[in-house]
Amino acid sequence: MTETPQSTERMDFRPWRKQETAAMLSICEQEEVMRYIDGPWSIERVRGFIEEEQARLVHEGVCRWAVWQKTDNKLMGFCGFVRREVGLEIGWRFDPLFWRQGYGYEAARHLVDWAFETRQADLIFAKMHVLNTASYLLAEKVGMERTARVRVAEYDDFRYELSRDAWNAGR
Fold it and tell me: What is the pTM assigned to this prediction?
């Protein structure tokens, strides 16, 4: 079953549509956005991402949803999950126009609550480049704790986790 999370006061979470390719490319081709991931994306990579998320939603019931600003109906980026064997991996990516305004926190907090409230998983985790301070501070603000430093190719990632029990305790 696929269930899209409810909107927040400032944003909507929507399944991806192919016509959003150009808007997502305008985010993913920016060096500052992709600095800690794998470099700017091509149009083909963005198309593949959207197709992957569409299939993920159908087959797994979750995805990294398109996040839209309500006031201007503008694609802000994405926030959501990939279902893994150990739990849900959360990820986010936003256009710099929306950085440092609380949108990332609002989206991540909302989706963490949604995932635990709808019994999607007992564990939510995130991985991010060790130099990606904004992302790991966001993970901590959402209630996640750093559990590991993992070697990935030529760099390291931090792993953050939040269990259902810890989430319940923090409510």
Answer: 0.94
